[in-house]
Specification:
single chain; D-amino Acid Aminotransferase, Chain A, domain 1; D-amino Acid Aminotransferase, Chain A, domain 2; nine-stranded mixed beta sheet; 18 strands; binds pyridoxal-5'-phosphate
């Protein structure tokens, strides 16, 4: 299945690369991109790497009207030995297909997606920043391109991969964030699309994010959509709590996105013999643990930040400060271990890393 050839058209000119210390998240893109087309009845065709360029889409393309689109996010790291490393990219390609299936889009061969990605990265290798904490962010996505205003799955799609050099998430060192517990808006409900990385989930979260930012909070803590009681996620990250030595994360209840970082954190904790439990956990329980002085740490997990320690929750105007607003010991240990494995500094006992040849 992966014998498909990937045609390469190299860019005639090279863009100027940004200074490493000025890199932000997702604003600058490399010289090339990968594209494949899908046509119903024919499958995926015309796999190609071309100069980075705008798309020409019909204004009636289904993606613009009904949001039939999915995406992924992962990173490539350039290590001191000159090797390019990907962290569990197979998990991302698997999840891409899961997301696609949820919104009636065709699957893309996972092996071929990886092959295309590796080829693209090799071509744009000199774009991978090398400074501590920097990486090449990878954004694979699929859009519905058929010009049709009827509400139906598109008969044509494009699968695209773009690359963006990103700066260190923690320029001034790893620091805890302040979180507003969201009691009005919800991110997803079981039976909806919360388990898929599809655009609409993020559009629907913007309003709450905006309100939180106005109040000086960097993210919102999402509660369940039925009772506004149980904790789901924090911003676009999964969330963990350490209470009396036990680490707890919300169980995948049908409305939570299954993060690769979440899965890796659980595996690491088990490996270290730290008790870790996936279960329903209410905000009331967190509140009570905090009152009793038993809430030791809280942190978010996701590809962008890896581990994001939480220093404060605001729940119904009450402020719960966690670990005196400082980064917890376990949060720091997880951050160091995961980033160590990703960059090749630490051993990789789980075979998570894929080296780009
Ligand atoms: C992508 C994402 C995550 C984190 O997933 P990772 O695979 O760890 O990057 C968590 N929650 C939401 C809503 C997401 O979109």
């Amino acid at each position: 299945m992966t014998t498909k050839t990937i045609h390469v058209e190299l860019s005639k000119s090279k863009k100027e690369k940004p200074n490493t210390d000025q890199l932000e998240f997702g604003r600058v893109f490399t010289d090339h991109m990968f594209i494949a087309d899908y046509v119903e009845g024919k499958g995926w065709t015309d796999h190609r790497i071309v100069p980075y360029q705008p798309l020409a889409l019909d204004p009636a393309a289904i993606v613009f009207h009904y949001g039939q689109t999915v995406f992924e996010g992962l990173k490539a790291y350039m290590s001191t030995d000159g090797k390019v490393r990907l962290f569990r990219p197979d998990e991302n390609m698997k999840r891409l297909n899961k997301s696609s299936d949820r919104i009636s889009m065709p699957p893309f061969n996972e092996e071929l997606a990886l092959k295309a990605l590796e080829k693209l990265i090799t071509i744009d290798k000199e774009w991978i920043p090398t400074a501590e904490g920097t990486s090449l962010y990878i954004r694979p996505f699929i859009v519905a391109t058929e010009p049709y205003l009827g509400v139906a799955p598109s008969k044509t799609y494009q699968f695209i991969i773009i690359l963006s050099p990103v700066g260190s998430y923690y320029k001034e060192g790893i620091h805890p964030v302040k979180i507003l517990v969201e009691n009005e808006y919800v991110r997803a409900v079981a039976g909806g699309t919360g388990t898929a990385k599809t655009a609409g989930n993020y559009a629907s979260g913007l309003k709450a994010q905006e309100v939180a930012a106005e109040k000086g909070y960097s993210q919102v803590l999402w509660l369940d959509g039925v009772e506004r009681k149980y904790i789901e996620e924090v911003g676009a990250m999964n969330v963990f709590f350490k209470i009396k030595g036990e680490v707890i994360t919300p169980v995948l209840s049908g409305s939570i996105l299954e993060g690769v970082t979440r899965k890796s954190v659980i595996q690491l904790l088990e490996h270290w013999d730290v008790p870790v439990t996936e279960r329903k956990i209410s905000m009331q329980e967190i509140y009570e643990a905090h009152q009793k002085g038993e809430l030791e740490e809280a942190f978010g997990t996701g590809t962008a930040a890896v581990i994001s320690p939480i220093g404060e929750f605001n729940w119904k105007d009450e402020k719960l400060v966690v670990n005196e607003g400082k980064t917890g010991e376990l949060s720091k240990k997880l951050y160091d271990e995961l980033t160590g494995i990703q960059t090749g500094k630490n051993e990789d006992p789980f075979d998570w890393v894929v080296e780009v040849e």
